[in-house]
Design goal:
This protein is α/β, with parallel strands linked by helices. The protein has helices spanning 3-32, 34-38, 49-52, 99-107, 129-143, 161-170, 187-194, 210-214, 234-243, 261-286, and strands spanning 40-41, 59-64, 70-76, 83-88, 92-93, 110-115, 154-159, 177-181, 221-226, 248-253.
Length: 289
Amino acid sequence: MNRLTQRGMRWLRMLGIAVAAALIFWTIVFMLFEDKFIYFPDRYPKGAYDQARSIPNLRDCWITAEDGVKLHGWFAPTESAKATLVISHGNAGNISHRYLLMRSLLRHKFNVLMYDYRGYGRSEGTPSEEGVYIDGRSFFDYALTLPEVNPQRVILWGTSLGGAVATDVATQRPAAGLILESTFTSGKDVARILYPFLPVHFFLRSKFNSIEKIRTLNIPTLIMHGEHDSIIPLGLGRKLFNAANEPKEFYEIPGADHNDTFFVGGEEYFNRIDQFVTKGLATTSRSPR
């Protein structure tokens, strides 16, 4: 082996060691700060709180979760509501950033209860997987106490990370239906996609294992996903749909990305929700309880 070849081999070994060291380093960083890579809350007053005042009949809701954490949400009722939607939002921002969706759903005759997870908006505490599940259960229970809410017509809605929360709540509470938007199968599947060069999925503590939970459900389920979702690929939404039991529907939103589904979907988006709720509640009312 000549000197040039030896030098090249040494360079390749050094490069391999450097790459391996970098992979190990960033995997350890992810393991140590896992929650920082999952939750991106905006705390009050950061957000669109002033704009949200345009929501008709909006009122603040303060509750104490089953583990003692004080949580904040918004409830907006409408006359002759078709159903009440309990909405679990995604992993970034807070409820104020979803005020346009709330206003649109009210126009389509839905009561809307949307809440902030612990550590988001005006809610106290720090988010964690079990914590956000507790928050979802606590607000579902709270919805049943509201005089404007028909307990037989409460539908869980989860967007992105909120899809995992809504699915978990549906396994433990008597929801009339489940709407999942731009969501995923499991935390491990998302980690493989977002960090393809790091083996973080082997060490992930947060499971968010929706695909196993959805197999246990037998309630009407609508899964909606943007055609061009650049964060959670459409394929994960379809995989989750395939695991769900009937009755179920899949709505691929043409041209939509991850965060613009109802803007891009327009009236068709809300029509599909209307049709699902009408049909789903009819199915639920015929089913034995």
